[in-house]
Amino acid sequence: MSQLDPVIHPPKRLQICALLSPVKELDFAFIRDHLEVSDSVLSKQLRYLEDAAYIIIRKETREGGRQRTWVSLTTEGHNAFSAHVSALQKICS
Amino acid sequence: MTNKDDVKASLQTVSDSKKAAVKQVKVPWWQDVGIALAMALLTLTPIVQMPFNLFLIAISMALLGGMIAAYTSQSAWVDGWRKGKTRPITYGFAAIFLSLIAVAHMGYHVFDSFLIPMAAAVANFTLYILFSKLWMYVWYKEMGIK
Asked: A61 forms bridges with which residues in the sheet?
């Protein structure tokens, strides 16, 4: 129980980390649509993870001035997520 | 979260979310062919005289850059050098690719043969296509999709 990470623990943040874990970068819009939340709700959840240095948010301006936001897990984020999932598995076993 | 059912549900959500992200990563056939072509052109550089070989390298790099830009602009992408079961495959391909360039160089400059560099280029083209398919297969398997 002690290894459960309070930053990752809330369901939406756990889902965000799970989405990010297998890939290098993920589009903000994809995460928002998958979680079925608004931009502001997702931004708030991402800020918690960013403050913990678990994710990096990268903004990219495309042709026509449209902005695209990319999200990726940091090494710390990967480690914390793996530890959190291991802790959940331990509880289950 | 002490209830085992809640924990099981969380683990299921983790698994489903991972799979959803993995399924977002797509490599269209033309990206494989484009990168394979760039690999083949790079293999042929030893048989092209200066300064035309620099021109060939520039074309290969532009092609490679274009394919990578297209691949990384989709909503999810994965790094070919990522840690995990796919990494030995990537290193293995890189070693074979560089070896075949060396073979092409030797074939042309030591054995005075056009055939050896051409065969090495065809081999690099084919091997890249096979490498890409194998890499995706192993990655999907590692992510629990196949």
From this structure: A67
CA pair distance B65, B71, nearest whole angstrom: 10
B-proximal residues of A, 27-86, CB under 8 Å: 27, 29-30, 34, 85
Q: What's the token pair of residue A32?
A: 């928002």
Alpha-carbon span B99 to B105, nearest angstrom: 10
ipTM: 0.90
Cβ-defined contact of B14 to A85 (cutoff 8 Å): yes
Specify the residue for token string 């398919």: B133
CA atoms of B88 and B15, how far apart (whole Å): 25
- Per-residue model confidence as pLDDT tens digits over B62-101: 999 999 999 999 999 999 999 899 999 999 999 999 999 9
Distance CA B146, CA B143 (A): 8
CA distance B21 to B138: 16
> Cα B108 from chain centroid?
26
pLDDT in tens, B4-39: 888 999 999 999 999 999 999 999 999 999 999 999
pTM for the predicted model, two decimal places: 0.88
